[in-house]
Design goal:
Elements: H1 9-19, H2 23-26, H3 31-62, H4 75-80
Length: 81
């Protein structure tokens, strides 16, 4: 049994903006170039999602957000004095 995925109209509009001319999709010369671009975009999106998740995890572990101030003294500066 195959699973069908419904794509929201807003998502299609965003994809069409990225493509530019919809006729380019049907041009066979662009198929491999489009595939390469899609794979690069997918990798960049995956990287951004992983970084965002790790940033949140680190913030939770440290107790403050990135570039935020800790409520505790910085142990490194205490050790250097």
């Amino acid at each position: 049994m195959s699973k069908t995925h419904k794509i929201r109209p807003e998502t299609l509009d965003e994809l069409l903006e990225l493509i530019g001319d919809p006729a380019d999709i049907l041009n066979e010369k662009n198929v491999f170039l489009d595939l390469k671009k899609a794979l690069i975009k997918k990798a960049l999106i995956k990287k951004a999602l992983i970084e965002k998740a790790l940033e949140g995890e680190l913030g939770h572990h440290l107790g403050y957000a990135k570039h935020g101030k800790s409520s505790q003294e910085n142990n490194v500066s205490v050790l250097l004095v």
